[in-house]
Amino acid sequence: MKPIKEIDLMIIGAGPAGLTAAIYAARAGLQTLVLENNIIGGQVRLSYTIENYPGFEEIKGNELADKMEEQAVKAGAQIDEFDFIEKVSLKDHEKLIETGDCLYKPQAVIIATGANPKKLPIPSEQKYLGKGVHYCGVCDGASYKDEVIAVVGGGNAALEEAVFLSKLAKKVIIIRRHNYFKGEAKALEAVENTPNIEIMYNWDLVDVQGEKFVDSARIKNTQTHEVKEIALKAVFGYIGTEPKTDLFKESIHLTPSKYIPTNEKMETNIKGVYAAGDVREKEFRQITTAVADGTIAALQAEKYITK
Question: Taxonomically, which superkingdom (predicted)?
Answer without folding.
Answer: Bacteria
